[in-house]
Amino acid sequence: MTNAQMLAHPPQERDFSLVYAEVQQFYAHQMQLFDSFEAEPWAGTFTENAVFDVPTLPAPVRGRAELAANVRRNRELQAKTGEQLRHWLGMLDVQRQANGTLRTRCYALVYMTPRGGESRVHRVCVMEDDLVLCRGRWRVSHRLVTRDDLA
Amino acid sequence: MTNAQMLAHPPQERDFSLVYAEVQQFYAHQMQLFDSFEAEPWAGTFTENAVFDVPTLPAPVRGRAELAANVRRNRELQAKTGEQLRHWLGMLDVQRQANGTLRTRCYALVYMTPRGGESRVHRVCVMEDDLVLCRGRWRVSHRLVTRDDLA
Amino acid sequence: MTNAQMLAHPPQERDFSLVYAEVQQFYAHQMQLFDSFEAEPWAGTFTENAVFDVPTLPAPVRGRAELAANVRRNRELQAKTGEQLRHWLGMLDVQRQANGTLRTRCYALVYMTPRGGESRVHRVCVMEDDLVLCRGRWRVSHRLVTRDDLA
Questions:
Q1: In chain C, what residues touch B15 (CB-CB under 8 Å)?
Q2: What is the Cβ-side half-sphere exposure of residue C127, based on CA atoms within 13 angstroms?
Q3: Are A16 and C21 in contact (CB under 8 A)?
Q4: Which of C128, C124, C126 is nearest to C141 (CA)?
Q5: Burial track C78-109 (b if 16+ CB lie within 10 A, e otherwise)
Q6: E-assigned strands of chain C?
Q7: Cβ–Cβ of C17/A16 closer than 8 Å?
Q8: Which residues of B fall within a CB distance of 8 Å from A90?
Q9: Is there a contact between B25 and C122 if contact means CB atoms under 8 Å apart?
Q10: Nearest C-alpha in C relative to B115
Q11: For chain C, domain boundaries
């Protein structure tokens, strides 16, 4: 991220209220893209070399091409099972870092609904992100998700 | 909605942080009114001719009188079953429109707790609203709810 | 709370967007401290003589020493059962009072995950707080939690 890519309002001058609202909006949009299998738009919410470290994958993935491929695999899986997943975040703690990036820690829930069946809680997780401001938009540069059942 | 009904701060001049906080506060209040069976105050969070299109009703309802009647039916049902419902929204995506209205898309969960029994997830839904600013307050002019289990 | 302990920006002059973001951030941090058994930091999010009235305790507790002791008991219990609890808040209604304090009412969910087992909804509650601004930070002076299953 170069200076030229930064907004007129650099991160350090943003009000906390603006940063907190932007991050909530960012995550809402990002999770809806994920659950709708919008592979490329979702991958675009990460930086180009982002690291995505989640317990459902055998190893951390890096970069947008791998991220998008992961969403396409999810779409194929969903087409077979008919199970709709919904990813929710909550209890969002946003800590501004001296270099203008954000460190976030929040809870992540996954709800699952079989077609014609009963919805249920599928996973309870903790998500820790590094966010950077790229051309006026927040992007995830590093994500670590841990599952409560495997803790 | 006439110009005379608009706030000194019209929607276009509001900061995103203010709009996002207002909408969150609006929904929190609206859902609490609904779960407490406050029929008229809840209906008052919609515009006079609002359309409310949800899968639990046989057809979309229009206008505050029908909306309030729906809440009174819910209250009677709850008195019989003793089941307490709680409606939660999350992953709130707020998109400002050129005409000053808002288009929102979020997830909606319904939790159900029988008296003396175990709480559980009852429904997982997606909610899409049009919001307009009337005399300084956001109001729903159109709501569409879809259920994951019926998708 | 003396005037000297107040921020340069007293509560009445704060924008609603700032107050709403601060309260969300406050609760996110507070709930994460609670679920991580950080006894003293969590107790420090209450005022010195705060009253904490929750249905899982036989009587309301008062003050930070008792609050911290309660968290240490939770930690011991969790070490035995291996069950991870996560406390979530949602539908946060924030009402500013004339004296600069806040009155909040929100829903509170508790998710429980046994080690190696299936996550589930454990409790659905309503939480009502009084918040005061102490040396620039929000603190809970009174908390009342009610459980839907006992209502």
A1: 17
A2: 24
A3: yes
A4: C128
A5: eeeeeebbbbbbbbbbbeeeeeebbebbbbbb
A6: 46-53, 61-62, 83-96, 102-114, 120-134, 137-147
A7: no
A8: 90
A9: no
A10: C149
A11: 14-150
Q: pLDDT tens-digit profile of B56-97?
A: 888 999 999 999 999 999 999 999 999 999 999 999 999 999
Judge whether residue A1 has pLDDT over 90.
no
Across the interface, which of C20, C90, C151 has its CB nearest the CB of B90? C90
Give the 3-state secondary structure of residue C101.
Answer: coil
Which of C21, C22, C25 is nearest residue A93 as measured by Cβ atoms? C25
Mean pLDDT computed over every residue of chain A? 92
> Which phi and psi (to 5°) does residue C12 adopt?
-65, -25
Q: Which residue has the tokens 């460190």?
A: A103
Nearest CA in chain A to C28: A91
Residue A5's pLDDT band, with cuts at 50, 70 and 90, is very low
Please name the residue that has the structure tokens 């009337």. Answer: B134
Minimum distance, in Å, between the CA of residue B31 and any CA atom of chain C: 7
- Class of B14-150 per CATH? alpha beta
Q: For the purposes of burial, counting CB atoms within 10 Å of the CB of A3, is it exposed (0-12), middle (13-18) or buried (19 or more)? A: exposed
pTM of the predicted model as reported, rounded to 2 decimal places: 0.92
Q: How far is A145 from chain C (nearest CA, A)?
A: 15
Beta sheet of C120-134, edge-to-edge order: C61-62, C46-53, C137-147, C120-134, C102-114, C83-96
Name the nearest CA neighbour of A41 among A59, A5, A68, A18: A68
